[in-house]
Recover the amino acids of this structure.
């Protein structure tokens, strides 16, 4: 345009002509809108900045991979809402489908990731333009709208939602809602039908992309918008907003009522109709999930990390100008927005104030994630933020400050403001880099290959320690998992009754997490669960003690664990069928809304973008305020507010420094030492050791790393309480009462430390290490090892029958139903009488007099699951309830993996049966641990284990069987040693004997015991015609105990790192 | 307007006319007679049933019930003859055929015929052997099942001869078995020696592949145990090896590798200690740590409930007769040692020294420290031990000494 103009100028060197042209251009400029350069800048920067950043952030966000998984579902079965991959099957009708379907559609062009990134980029563009249009409507000033679009690009709440949370549907939903708002305004204001259709078409897109946004958007965005329209319409009837009184307001409301009502009815219809299958599904499958804790509901002052994520980051720099935002929104025209934003701010504070729970009610409070309120509040603030920036940069605020404080102050202030603003955006976007929210990226190809091999996908699998990347794996394989990543869709009571996000990261959810996981691992056949992919060795001991064994280490470092005796999934899996019309609605409407919205709005978009036609000025331009005199009062309030905030921040930082300064006091250094050890920062831990003790880092590492065991290798420090016992100026004795979470049990351990002050810093004096030296320098060992071929013929068919090994023959030597601590328990002893080593699965069921099943469960960790030929093991079966199924039973707040809810068996069991199955096992038989010393005193067993083999035992378990004076089995208990037993070393244990005076045997019978489906003993008698029962009694240790007279000790050794 | 109505009504009229026409031409009742006389067919040959009728138009359906399934066949009346071709998939299966000729929903004629296996095709053999492992002895057996079939997978007629062969070591046995209800089977009894037995079958010059069953040793009989060690002293550090004789089953076979043997040690205080080992070539070797005090171990080996050994006694001599200790640093440091061993050498590091702390004859605490270079140090930190006097009992290597009452300064 300009070039053309210049050429024309050159061609016609005539003054008059120039003038004519000038006039014409002026005319054109007046008639047509100029392209808003700020918006163009915002779009350019926004698209470049965000779309290059998402390639590094989006895949490690919390939600993006879930959306990708859903997209994969739509890409493969568009009209079928049932998905088998997660939670033994669930319906995708629990989440509005538009964004997923869009990704799914695009994935057909360039793959799922292409779809994901494309939709994300579309979301970014929609957001920036949305903010522009929304601001334009609010302020009626194109410059301000342009500024708002620019600040929106770097707004920390948007950055967080996109780059940390990955909530694409939420972004698309709110962006389209912002596009929709000017149309709603114009419909109500002008009553022209085209605006009515435009607004509804855009609202429909919002609804199909995110259900919560339009529902709450109605309350928080559209209601205040309607209020503003009424206000504007009233204003037109008088001379100023001051004259708009309530009566006039009400009068105008009734005048506009038809339009408001028609819009209301239209949007209500759309909300119901567009995602009708969603509502049907919500009715049919109400969310039974117990509330899962979410950081946004925490008290942000107590849980500072949640405060950072859900309050500080989304507000960011906006919080500093909060008084301005409120001042503007509380002016008469925006009063409704003022009320709305105030409510949003308060709701966004989560559990910090008691208001949100009172406003929302307990149910909604526990289902909703409250961070969305802060997000909306920050988005609602963006127009005012834009306005503020505009006024600061080139408006009346600049003048006001400059005239009062001078140019330099204004520049410094502006620079600080801009720096702070950009810092927040940068900080937010890089947060995931410095503090990863996810485990390191997992190469899923070896897992996918594993599942495709050898029909492994005929069983369910369970990933552990994958984070949200489990969704990536799910979207790449047709194999199914019992876990999942969309907890509202869960149906298994084992999961819905627990406040856990996923089984996969259950260690972060304490008792409920590990307890739930243990149930899945103990009774895997119920879920056809055969494979566990472990990316976190924390779970290894529990897998071993539940009877799983390692299969292979995949090339991506993930260990595959397998469980024997699990049947494959049936060929036909159950699913909830929905009527065809719902399927069609779900598949067609969302994309249709986009097409319709596009068709309806395309004209307007083109006209606006290309400036082809003169668009009439929208009504809201009439109500723009002129920025002439910035009230000085506001400047003062802002200064005071910023000073107050800085003061609070400074004080907070100082407090944090005092707590976190590592060597400022004896307690701090001990705490830091344990923190460092917990995170395995050995170098850091070593730096807290007294430098004069001359303990080298290598020696320190050696001493720390040789001590394997549950406490050193598998424990997570849960709590530490540090007490100073004795202190002087430069020395202190500290007792650290530590509480460790391990996958097996909770461990409380007290450590004594001597600390010393050197050069103003406190240090820990090193502790003594065991001096025991093993007898031999070099040793050779001979053991029997096993291998089984699986299928001898390479084939994809089922295993040939001649390759199926005979199940090892077991014999149940005794079985009893006992009652102990008001709990019914099955105990007994079992022997592998075959020549093959066996993996033992033992399931017991209790019946009442009518042979009705009262309870059924498997032996968990009180049994040796892998036994050698002729080896015996004691066992115990506790009947676990699906924990906390009953709401009234309070959930324990502390975590204890050993704890479980015993099944409430109201009737007295009349009978029981035991189904045991042996399968040929080939690993995990380490028997080279001797009980080399034992002292029984004061009701304690104090003993020494000695490892004479060549593998380091990581977690030794003792099975202690109690017998009565008639040498009948009475009870079986277990005890995990906290430290491992190294090769040719000793390990001491101290076990407190139980009081069994109230333990009683109810039934002692082998009548209903079965081995491999056959009655116990039938085959055993052909193998061992006559057992010598008397000899077995020689193996019992006489003890003077409470309620028992003999005990037997057996060892079950877990090798963490087999060599 | 009228034209339109005509256009739409016409197709309907035509349709109804057609329907009535069809109905008109439909079957009049007629009698049928089976012309096919053959009532036994060989599997794999085509089967057709021909019916004759006086009517030139009457048709009927043939409903067929066969072991393979049921079906309804149709045919056309060609000059008073209806020929029903039995589907090929039915023809290749043996078994009884029942047929019902149905006209106008009524059975007009019915009958049966049989299909027999096709002996002209090559014989196929299907075999099952189980269990794949046995124990030695005379009562255990594995069963070989052979199912000879024709090429269409139809089991051969009863009394077809099948040769069942087995090989064990030098001996090869061949037995002729006749099929009875499709199968020929034989219980192949185990032998008294362990090893691998190969089994195969043969029928009409068709041989099976090689099947195998392992004959595994039976549970062992009683055995003896012995021990060996480096020295006889109770140093708490060296290892004594416990070794079984070769454990054999009642037929003299070495028990299966990996058989678990429990060695139980009974101390002089009637404490039961344990060590375990699995057999290799019938011998299990377990290890037990020397005690750290004068002791006699009585050891016996068990294969739980199945076999046991003799019991042996192992004596360990005390390493020391006495030891020294001293109090320093205001009685707050107790040094025990240097502890010297049987050749006057310093004991290996890691010997447990136990300190029992008494206050007015009440046991307050017991501490265990391991020796380094023969010396063990105990520190009684003032903040933890606030009383004015304590008495101690120090034990190591089975020797216990009680100290005098020691006074402490408290501040």
């Amino acid at each position: 345009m300009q070039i053309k103009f210049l050429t024309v100028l050159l061609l016609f060197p005539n003054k008059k002509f120039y003038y004519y042209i000038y006039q014409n251009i002026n005319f054109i400029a007046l008639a047509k809108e100029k392209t808003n350069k700020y918006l163009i800048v915002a779009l350019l920067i926004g698209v470049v900045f965000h779309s290059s950043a998402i390639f590094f952030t989006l895949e490690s966000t919390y939600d993006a991979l879930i959306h990708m998984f859903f997209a994969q579902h739509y890409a493969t079965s568009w009209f079928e809402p049932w998905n088998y991959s997660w939670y033994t099957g669930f319906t995708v009708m629990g989440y509005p489908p538009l964004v997923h379907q869009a990704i799914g559609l695009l994935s057909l062009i360039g793959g799922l990731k292409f779809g994901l990134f494309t939709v994300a980029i579309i979301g970014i563009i929609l957001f920036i333009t949305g903010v522009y249009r929304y601001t334009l409507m609010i302020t009626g000033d194109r410059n301000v709208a342009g500024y708002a679009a620019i600040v929106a690009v770097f707004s920390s709440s948007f950055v967080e939602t996109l780059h940390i949370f990955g909530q694409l549907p939420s972004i698309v939903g709110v962006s389209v809602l912002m596009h929709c708002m000017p149309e709603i305004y114009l419909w109500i204001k002008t009553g022209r039908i085209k605006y009515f259709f435009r607004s509804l078409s855009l609202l429909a897109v919002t609804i199909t992309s995110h259900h919560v946004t339009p529902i709450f958007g109605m309350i928080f965005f559209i209601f205040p918008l309607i209020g503003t329209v009424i206000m504007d319409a009233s204003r037109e009837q008088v001379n100023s907003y001051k004259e708009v009184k309530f009566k006039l307001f009400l009068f105008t409301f009734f005048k506009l009522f038809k339009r408001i009502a028609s819009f209301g009815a239209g949007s209500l219809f759309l909300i119901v109709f567009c995602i009708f299958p969603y509502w049907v599904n919500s009715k049919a499958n109400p969310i039974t999930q117990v509330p899962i804790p979410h950081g946004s509901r925490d008290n942000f002052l107590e849980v500072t990390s949640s405060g950072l994520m859900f309050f500080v980051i989304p507000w960011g720099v906006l919080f500093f100008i909060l008084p301005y935002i409120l001042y503007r929104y509380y002016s008469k025209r925006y009063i409704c927005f003022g009320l709305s934003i105030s409510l949003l701010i308060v709701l966004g504070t989560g559990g910090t104030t008691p208001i949100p729970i009172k406003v929302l009610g307990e149910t909604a409070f526990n289902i909703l994630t409250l961070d969305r309120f802060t997000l909306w509040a920050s988005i609602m603030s963006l127009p005012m933020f834009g306005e503020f920036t505009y006024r600061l940069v080139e408006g009346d605020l600049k003048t006001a400050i400059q005239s009062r404080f001078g140019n330099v102050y204004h520049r410094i202030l502006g620079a600080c403001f801009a720096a702070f603003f950009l810092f927040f955006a940068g900080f937010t976007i890089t947060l995931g880099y410095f503090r990863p929210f996810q485990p390191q990226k997992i190469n899923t190809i070896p897992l996918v290959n594993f599942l495709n091999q050898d029909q492994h996908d005929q069983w369910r699998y369970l990933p552990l320690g994958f984070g949200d990347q489990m969704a990536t794996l799910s979207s790449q394989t047709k194999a199914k998992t019992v876990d999942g990543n969309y907890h509202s869709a869960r149906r298994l009571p084992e999961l819905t009754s627990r406040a856990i996000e996923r089984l996969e990261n259950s260690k972060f959810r304490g008792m409920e997490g590990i307890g739930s996981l243990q149930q899945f691992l103990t009774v895997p056949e119920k879920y056809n669960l055969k494979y566990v992919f472990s990316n976190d060795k924390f779970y290894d001991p529990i897998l071993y003690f539940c009877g799983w064994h390692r299969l292979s280490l995949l090339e991506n470092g993930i260990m595959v664990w397998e469980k024997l005796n699990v049947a494959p999934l049936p060929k036909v899996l159950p699913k909830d069928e929905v009527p065809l019309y719902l399927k069609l609605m779900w598949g067609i409407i969302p994309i249709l809304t986009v097409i319709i919205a596009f068709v309806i709005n395309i004209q307007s978009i083109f006209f606006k973008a290309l400036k082809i036609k003169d668009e009439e000025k929208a009504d809201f331009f009439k109500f723009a305020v002129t920025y002439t005199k910035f009230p000085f009062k506001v400047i003062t309030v802002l200064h005071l507010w910023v000073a107050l905030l800085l003061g609070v921040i400074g004080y907070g930082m100082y407090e944090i420094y005092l707590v976190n300064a590592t060597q400022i006091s004896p307690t701090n250094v001990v705490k830091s030492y344990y923190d460092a050890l917990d995170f395995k920062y050995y170098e850091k831990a070593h730096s807290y050791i007294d430098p004069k003790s001359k303990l080298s880092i290598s020696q320190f590492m050696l001493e720390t790393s040789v001590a394997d065991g549950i406490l050193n290798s598998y424990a997570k420090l849960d709590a530490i309480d540090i007490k100073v016992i004795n202190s002087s100026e430069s020395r202190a004795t500290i007792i650290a009462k530590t509480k460790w979470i391990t996958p097996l049990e909770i461990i409380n351990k007290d450590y004594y430390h001597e600390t010393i002050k050197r050069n103003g810093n406190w240090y820990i004096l090193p502790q003594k290490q065991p001096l025991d030296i093993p007898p031999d320098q070099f040793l050779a060992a001979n053991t029997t090892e096993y291998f089984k071929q699986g299928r001898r013929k390479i084939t994809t068919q089922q295993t040939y029958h001649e390759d199926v090994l005979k199940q090892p023959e077991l014999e149940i030597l005794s079985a009893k139903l006992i009652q102990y601590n008001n709990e019914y328990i099955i105990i007994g002893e079992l022997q592998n009488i075959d020549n093959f080593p066996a993996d033992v699965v033992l399931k017991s069921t209790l019946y009442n007099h009518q042979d009705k099943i009262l309870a059924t469960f498997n032996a968990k960790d009180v049994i040796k699951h892998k036994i050698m030929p002729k080896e015996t093991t004691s066992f115990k079966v506790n009947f676990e309830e699906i924990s906390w199924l009953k709401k009234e039973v309070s959930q324990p707040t502390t975590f204890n993996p050993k704890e479980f809810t015993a099944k409430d068996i109201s009737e007295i069991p009349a009978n029981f049966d035991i189904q045991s199955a042996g399968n040929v096992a080939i690993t995990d038989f380490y028997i080279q641990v001797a009980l080399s010393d034992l002292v029984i005193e004061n009701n304690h067993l104090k003993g020494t284990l000695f490892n004479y083999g060549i593998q380091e035992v990581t977690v030794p378990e003792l099975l202690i069987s109690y017998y009565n004076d008639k040498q009948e089995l009475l009870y079986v208990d277990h005890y995990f040693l906290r430290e491992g037993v190294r090769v040719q070393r000793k390990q001491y244990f101290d076990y407190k004997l139980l009081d069994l005076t109230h333990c009683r045997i109810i039934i002692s019978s082998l009548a209903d015991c079965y081995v491999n489906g056959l009655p116990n003993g039938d085959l055993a008698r052909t193998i061992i015609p006559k057992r010598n029962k008397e000899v077995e009694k020689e193996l019992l240790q006489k003890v003077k105990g409470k309620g028992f007279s003999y005990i037997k000790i057996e060892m079950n050794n877990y090798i963490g790192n087999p060599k | 307007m009228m034209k339109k109505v005509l256009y739409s009504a016409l197709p309907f009229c035509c349709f109804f006319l057609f329907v009535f026409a069809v109905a008109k031409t439909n079957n009049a009742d007629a009698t049928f007679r089976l012309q096919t006389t053959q009532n036994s067919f060989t599997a794999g040959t085509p089967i057709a049933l021909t019916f004759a009728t006086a009517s030139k138009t009457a048709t009927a359906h043939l409903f067929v019930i066969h072991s393979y399934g049921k079906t309804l066949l149709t045919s056309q009346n060609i000059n008073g003859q209806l020929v029903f071709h039995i589907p090929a998939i039915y023809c290749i299966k043996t078994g009884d055929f029942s047929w019902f000729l149905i006209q106008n929903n009524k059975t007009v004629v019915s009958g049966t015929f049989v299909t027999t296996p096709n002996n002209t095709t090559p014989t196929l053999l299907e075999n099952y052997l189980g269990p794949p492992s046995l124990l030695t002895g005379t009562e255990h057996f594995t069963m070989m099942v052979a199912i000879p079939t024709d090429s269409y997978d139809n089991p051969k007629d009863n009394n077809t001869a099948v040769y069942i062969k087995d090989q064990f070591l030098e001996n090869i046995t061949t037995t002729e078995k006749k099929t009875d209800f499709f199968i020929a089977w034989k219980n192949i009894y185990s032998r008294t020696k362990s090893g691998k037995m190969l089994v195969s079958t043969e029928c009409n010059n068709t041989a099976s592949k090689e099947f195998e069953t392992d004959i595994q040793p039976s549970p062992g009989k009683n055995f003896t145990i012995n021990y060996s060690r480096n020295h006889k002293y109770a140093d708490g550090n060296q290892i004594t090896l416990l070794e079984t004789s070769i454990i054999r089953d009642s037929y003299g076979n070495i028990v299966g590798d990996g058989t678990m043997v429990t060695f139980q040690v009974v101390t002089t205080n009637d404490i039961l200690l344990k060590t375990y080992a699995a057999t290799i070539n019938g011998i299990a070797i377990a290890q037990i740590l020397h005690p750290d005090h004068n002791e006699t171990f009585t050891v016996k080996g068990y294969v739980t409930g199945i076999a046991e050994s003799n019991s042996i006694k192992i004596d360990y001599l005390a390493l020391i007769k006495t030891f020294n200790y001293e109090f320093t640093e205001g009685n707050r440091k107790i040094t025990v040692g240097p502890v010297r061993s049987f050749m006057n050498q310093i004991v290996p590091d890691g010997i447990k020294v136990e300190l029992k702390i008494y206050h007015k004859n009440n046991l307050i605490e017991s501490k265990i420290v391991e020796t380094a270079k023969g010396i063990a140090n105990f520190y009684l930190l003032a903040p933890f031990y606030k009383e004015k006097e304590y008495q101690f009992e120090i034990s190591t290597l089975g020797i216990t000494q009680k100290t005098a009452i020691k006074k402490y300064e408290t501040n």
